[in-house]
Amino acid sequence: YAKSPINLIISPRIYSTSFNSPTPSIYNRRKGLSGSTQMAEDPIIATDNSLKKLELERSDDTVSRFLGGLNHTIRKLVFRVISSGPIPQHIAFILDGNRRFAKKWKMTEGAGHKAGFLALMSVLKYCYEIGVKYVTVYAFSLDNFNRRPDEVQYVMDLMQEKIEGFLKELSLVNKYGVRVMFIGDLKRLYEPVRVAAEKAMAATAGNTKTYLLVCVAYTSSHEIPRAVYESCEEKNGVMNENGSVNGDVNTGNGSEVVVKMVDIEKHMYMAVAPDPDILVRSSGETRLSNFLLWQTTNCLLYSPKELWPEMGFWPLVSCILEFQKNYKYLEKKKKQA
Amino acid sequence: MNLGDEMQRVFRRISKSGNIALLLLWHVLHLILSVLYIIREIFYAVESYLITNGYVKTYTNLNLDRVKYLGLVVDSDEARKTSQVIELLEWLSAIGVKKVCLYDREGVLKKSKEVFVERFGSAELPNENSKTIPLLSKKRMDFEFVSITDGKEAVAKAANLLFKKYYVDADSEKPFFTETYLTEALRTLEPDPDLLLIYGPARCLLGFPAWRIRYTEMVHMGPLKYKKYGLILKAIHRFTKVKQNFGS
Q1: Interface predicted TM-score (ipTM) over 0.85
Q2: Superfamily of segment(s) A88-336
Q3: Residues 183-202 of chain B whose Cβ lies under 8 A from any Cβ of chain A
């Protein structure tokens, strides 16, 4: 993983350098999905040189400058080749393996989580560069509240620190059109984290270019019953308004269907985004651990062996290649649904 | 102006031929990947042969206590070849798996229910005097047949049940539905599968009931026609070694 430490050097500049217009997918062009304006002037050639200059200017010495520039060129080339095929619209990540990473490199657990955050930033950067519109991240599960209180406190503090740091760079974020949404039972979060999260959601609510959905205090076993509850409440409200127009429920007409599947899906937390195309769980574990169970009906499940802080450019590329290999099959299954 | 237009036209031509070059590169890349997958399949075949014939000692004694309930997800098109499924089930019963949940999206396996139950489920021994029946067919297995209607649609039905139970009466107290309420309304008699073996071209759940796979390990075994006995042993062995924290 000689390239990963270099990625970590470059990644803090995520918002300032690589958020120019994402690589236009050649596949989309062929399908005629993008407007005709993109054919007139190729933005890749225009912005490439300025991006390279920006990256190089920031590096400190000759070696890291050279490696940084090389790294950047290789990335751009690989992304351009991959864009000839279908690119997923929505990728979900389970950030597994921070504590194992810390043990492996003899760091404290907190340092493992911090390394995980850096890896998250670089993976997000690559996703947006390649043109993925929705990225979902499983940051904290309701089951994780069962961990040691000091670890939970540490993760909450880390989240609060990162969200507040993010709020400071708001103008830059809004310029690149990233909308951040926090998904889950936010009432269970610690108060300062919840306040910061709500502020971040409100501040980026107007952006529509790319979406970052952070799942905190989330489990599917909470999301699905809650969606059922909300749809029952809604139907109840509608029936009360219409004065029981539909009202044969009392007469024991057992086949009356009030709540339909579309109603439940409408009330899911994740209704704001389409179903994920790929679900990536790092560290080689093969289970979903109560994440997006409802939404992964036709989703490709990918389990690379790398621990989350080791995730970077190449595992993401293999993941997208795997998706492209199975694209026709998955599309066929989606149509059958 | 003219120079600008010229430049744009040149860039457009470069990018068009660049596009074709990139597309070619993409196809070459996927060709290389297909070759690598074929090599990997050959490697798996060799490995399976070694495991099946007992050359690898680690897989000889499997601790099957952890695999209380095995799930099988089969691609519907492949499930139509009932003989392949029966062969797979015979292997599983030879390994010693007792309870199997069979899932395919369209319910093809549900339709062939009688075939499977007759083959593996009958408690009474067929002809006592015929000693040439292979031992494999005598082992009993319990089955559960699941299809897409038992997935999201079942949750919708459960939602209607809950609605009728709590919302019909305008004055009754309406509780917030938690996991327990939904589990009760879903009325699934069987537990969650511990291990799910996916037989199909891609590692995809294909609509298996979401409610039942919260902590299930999912292993992709490849297409049904290329199933291998040794790889099943390997998957089960790996499962017995997994340590789950359940979040804590």
Answers
A1: no
A2: Decaprenyl diphosphate synthase-like (3.40.1180.10)
A3: 201-202
**Of residues A220, A263, A329, nearest to B201 (C-beta):** A329
Look at residue A169 and tell me whether its pLDDT is greater than 50: yes
Greatest extent of chain B over all pairs of C-alpha atoms, in Å = 98
Tokens of A295: 């939404």
Residues present in chain A in total: 337
Q: Model confidence over B7-41: pLDDT tens digits?
A: 888 878 877 787 888 889 899 999 999 999 999 99
Task: Please check the confidence at residue A221 and state whether its pLDDT lies above 50.
Answer: yes
Tell me which DSSP letter residue A310 carries.
Answer: G
Taking residues B100-124, what's their average pLDDT? Answer: 81
Cβ atoms of A263 and A255 closer than 8 Å: no
Catalytic annotation, pick one of A60, A96, A157, A248: A96
Q: Are B203 and B217 in contact (CB under 8 A)?
A: no
Residue in B182, B217, B242 closest to A228 by CB: B182
pLDDT tens, B150-197? 888 888 888 888 888 887 776 667 778 788 888 888 877 788 889 999
- The burial of A303, by beta-carbon neighbours within 10 Å (0-12 exposed, 13-18 middle, 19 or more buried), is given as buried
CB-based contact B216 A228, cutoff 8 Å: no
Where exactly are the structural domains of chain A?
88-336
